[in-house]
Specification:
By secondary structure, the chain is of the alpha/beta class. Helix content is 57%, strand content 11%. It folds into three domains: 255 residues, Tetratricopeptide repeat domain (Serine Threonine Protein Phosphatase 5, Tetratricopeptide repeat, Alpha Horseshoe), CATH 1.25.40.10; 133 residues, Nucleotidyltransferase, domain 5 (2-Layer Sandwich); 180 residues, Rossmann fold, CATH 3.40.50.1460. The strands form two sheets. Strands 6, 7, 8, 9, 10, 11, 12 and 13 form an eight-stranded mixed beta sheet that branches. The longest helix has 34 residues. It is globular, with a radius of gyration of 29 Å.
Length: 765
């Protein structure tokens, strides 16, 4: 027995040493692959290390958290969260330092997909765990993760306080101090605090120089610093402050990037090499040194094409397209833009861990790619005739459609749901009495694409984008003020730019329904209230908006077989005022619908909750859901909601509830929101309103841009349903048009503040 025990002990010890050696070897290989930008290889090695027997908790957690980093690099977000949650399960509060580490990384993961509230919860947990230790590094990482969350939420004082803790806890030679200093600069750029940003940028440069020479950390520091230096230089220029700072910053950035390029020659990291060449190319592009910028960008593409990092690849192809355009090489520029669009993955935020840049916004880094391609195609189309021209116009429209779909996916942080997947739409459905108008605001001109049947008409209006935006903002604000008619001047200008150039074509084709696909600032416009000097647009055409034609499903409906659900909140709850007109509104609709549809159900006041709505939709396949309750649409989908009696109904929840009937034969044809409002002047908020029907899985939505007197809302909504549900009723678009015209004819309600807020979104039939 003693001999056997000794043999077993020796074998166990030997195996333990072997497993430890294997873990160390696999970990080293994975780290090197990660540094080289080969995330697939890094992932494979960390997955292999997890298959080893008798790993300690520390080793398992290390492998899982590093695996998550590789998965994030690949853009595999679902796998990333799975690995981090596994790490939490492996380490159930036994190793406090690792608990803090996991939560900090989880916070960064949530930030990478723009979920700041979830990120804050994880960051708070990281700080709490770290403060239970004497480990300065663990505490610094926890404070750093929370500071990044506060930065994204624009809580500057809280972020600065946490960044200060990072500096207090760590020596100058620690990489995290550099990251903290640079992220402080990013926040100050966001708030346009130029002097402090400049001082902290130089402090960051000093800290970066303290990092070990030839280290991967220093290479990252050089590249990250140059990004912020260029951003700050641009801010100095934009604010038109007469100073030599921008020139000095750009020269320093150029020197830094040249140093980084030399540095990358000593490493196999193709991602870093692409970034170094590409950034220097971008610097030269901004200085109009195009001939120098092009070969550097080609080098960036060469190294980027050897990686799986799609975001990096699209970025440099886009840059190449811009440079070729500046060099008047349009065919090559179009090809480069096409390549960039094919590579673009707009919702995945593959950010370099630890660095946060304000430039990673949709409007800065995604939308311009689609619009840049459309602009080039439209220029080319203007020089051609016949089918060749039509083909280019279809490509341009397709690029704009892709932008619209991508922006909705970005807004809702959702690339997977079927509702947000583009589909082919038979444009014959819009003929012969309907037309689709795409107003495309480009920096130097407005392009109107009018789709009449199978033909696209292109019209260009020489109006600067800045003037167009200013006028649209004025109109969106003034049209809500019923005290005066100041809105008229902007309504006239916008009509002359957006409608008058195409109105004769509409009349010649006997169009009675105009479907507008607005984008950006145009989403704020109640097109119905545009004015030709004699009449409002709605008096000649029924007007519908759609956030994306390829996400619209126009079908005629037989309302006789429809089920109608009326939901209302007339009482004042959760700090919101009462809506006494809701009772009249629902009673009127019920009276109209009783003999016109298959069935009518109602949920009112205290009975109205998320649970009761869920239960109702489980039991009955409703074709119409009418929600007469307060609603708010803001620039973030997470801040947009509808009010129930005791809680707030978020858009994701609404989608899930309505999705209960997704596989039934009767789809949701109409979602009416009769008391919602949209943040004034915020086109991202208007995007949320425009996308609510699509997100909720409804073919159409009827909703308001601003709050209305609930008695007026009841009047118009009643008229709308009266026309829609009657025998041989009108289309949704024509029903809304007639309801709005009926108010215009009443002196008391002729001002568009009373009737123009309501938009029909989606299917117009």
């Amino acid at each position: 027995m003693p001999i056997l025990f000794i043999v077993v002990s020796i074998v166990s010890s030997f195996l333990g040493v072997t497993w430890a050696a294997d873990f160390h070897r696999l970990n080293q290989q994975a780290e090197q692959a990660f540094i080289d930008g080969d995330y697939a290889d890094a992932r494979a090695h960390w997955q292999a290390s997890l298959q080893l027997l008798d790993l300690s908790i520390t080793q398992k957690v290390d492998a899982l958290t590093r695996l998550a980093a590789a998965q994030q690099g690949q853009g595999n977000l679902q796998a990333m969260f799975s690995s981090l949650n596994q790490a939490l399960d492996v380490n159930p509060h036994r190793h406090v330092v690792q608990q803090a580490q996991i939560q900090a990384q989880l916070s960064d993961a949530w930030l990478s997909i723009d979920k700041p509230q979830a990120a804050l919860v994880a960051a708070q947990a990281a700080v709490q765990a770290a403060l239970d230790t004497d480990d300065n590094i663990a505490q610094a990482y926890a404070f750093f993760s929370r500071a990044n969350v506060y930065s994204m939420m624009l809580h500057q004082q809280k972020a600065q306080k946490d960044f200060s803790q990072v500096h207090r806890l760590l020596p100058q030679t620690h990489e995290l101090r550099f990251k903290a200093a640079l992220n402080q600069v990013d926040l100050e750029i966001e708030f346009e605090q130029l002097e402090s940003a400049q001082q902290n940028l130089q402090q960051a440069h000093h800290l970066g120089q303290q990092l070990p020479l030839s280290s991967f950390a220093q290479l990252n520091a050089l590249l990250a610093w140059s990004v912020q230096a260029q951003a700050l230089a641009q801010l100095f220029k934009d604010t038109q402050i007469h100073t030599t700072v921008p020139v000095a910053l750009l020269q320093q950035a150029e020197n830094t990037l040249r140093q980084a390029i030399q540095h990358t020659e000593k490493t196999q990291n193709r991602v870093a090499r692409a970034d170094a060449y590409g950034q220097l190319g971008h610097l030269y592009e901004t200085q109009q040194r195009y001939e120098e910028a092009l070969p550097l960008t080609q080098q960036a593409i060469f190294f980027a094409e050897q990686t799986e990092y799609a975001k990096l690849r699209y970025r440099w192809h886009w840059q190449r397209g811009r440079i070729l355009r500046a060099l008047h090489k349009r065919p090559q520029a179009i090809a480069a833009y096409h390549r960039a669009v094919r590579l673009l993955q707009p919702v995945q935020h593959d950010l370099q861990t630890g660095y946060r840049y304000a430039s990673h916004h949709f409007n800065d880094s995604v939308r311009p790619v689609y619009y840049g391609l459309a602009d080039l195609l439209l220029q080319q189309a203007a020089q051609l005739e016949g089918e060749a021209r039509q083909a280019l116009l279809r490509q341009a429209m397709d690029s704009i459609e892709k932008s619209k779909v991508a922006e909705l996916q970005n807004y809702f942080k959702d690339t997977c749901s079927a509702a947000l997947q583009p589909r082919q739409v038979d444009l014959a459905l819009v003929a012969p009495n309907s037309a689709v108008l795409y107003p495309i605001a480009l920096p130097d001109r407005l392009v109107l694409l009018l789709n009449l049947g199978d033909t696209i008409h292109q019209t260009e209006v020489p109006i600067q984008q800045t003037e167009l935006k200013t006028t649209a903002f004025i109109f969106a604000y003034d049209v809500q003020n019923r005290v005066n008619n100041r809105f008229f001047y902007a309504a006239w200008d916008l009509y002359n730019w957006l409608i008058r150039p195409v109105v004769e074509k509409l009349r010649a084709a006997q169009v009675d329904t105009l479907v507008v696909a607005p984008d950006g600032i145009f989403r704020l416009l109640p097109f119905a209230a545009l004015h030709d000097g004699k009449n409002f647009l709605i008096e000649e055409f029924a007007v519908v908006t759609t956030p994306s034609l390829t996400l619209t499903d126009p079908h005629p409906i037989n309302w006789k077989e429809a089920e109608l659900l009326l939901v209302g909140l007339s009482e004042g709850v959760q700090g919101y005022t009462a809506l006494p007109g809701v009772l009249t509104e629902l009673s009127n609709i019920q009276g109209i619908a009783q003999s016109q549809v298959s069935g009518v159900s109602q949920i009112l006041n205290q009975a109205y909750s998320v649970d009761s709505l869920t239960q109702a939709l489980k039991n009955t396949p409703y074709s119409i859901i009418h929600l007469a309750t307060h609603g708010e649409f803001n620039s973030l989908a997470a801040d947009s909601y509808l009010l129930t009696y005791g809680e707030k109904l978020q858009m994701d929840t609404l989608q899930n509830i309505i999705g209960l009937g997704r596989f039934r034969e009767t789809p949701l044809e109409l979602l009416t929101l009769s008391a919602c409002k949209t943040a004034t002047g915020d086109d991202r908020a208007a995007l949320g309103l425009a996308g609510v029907a699509i997100k909720a899985g409804a073919r159409s939505a009827l909703a308001s841009l601003w709050s209305l007197d609930d008695e007026v809302a009841a009047l118009m909504i009643t008229e709308f349903y009266q026309l829609l549900l009657q025998e041989n009723g009108m289309s949704k678009a024509k029903s809304l048009q007639q309801a709005q015209k009926s108010l215009i004819t009443q002196v008391r309600y002729e001002h568009p503040a009373y009737w123009a807020a309501f938009l029909l979104i989606g299917s117009w039939l």
